[in-house]
Design goal:
The chain is mainly alpha-helical. It has a domain of about 45 residues. Strands 1-2 form a two-stranded antiparallel sheet. Helix 1 crosses helix 3.
Length: about 80
Amino acid sequence: MIKSKVDYPYQVNQWKEVGGTMAGYCKEKEISYQTFMYHASRMKKKEIPSMEPKEFVRINIPEKAHGGIEYHFTNGSYFVFPAGC
């Protein structure tokens, strides 16, 4: 296909419906594998929901808690809030 005439988002969606490998799909459609991969990865990033906080949540801690709170994230990072803060 002529480079300027390829609608990569459309092609990515077509590939998802058809299935198979990206390389096989690109070879069959005679389109650039590297450019297809670029657009597929951009589209995947847009599908991931934003991790921005929507609101704050108040956490009530019993007065008997001495150690505080540890909040662990799925990526391995964490916060430690000492008791009384």
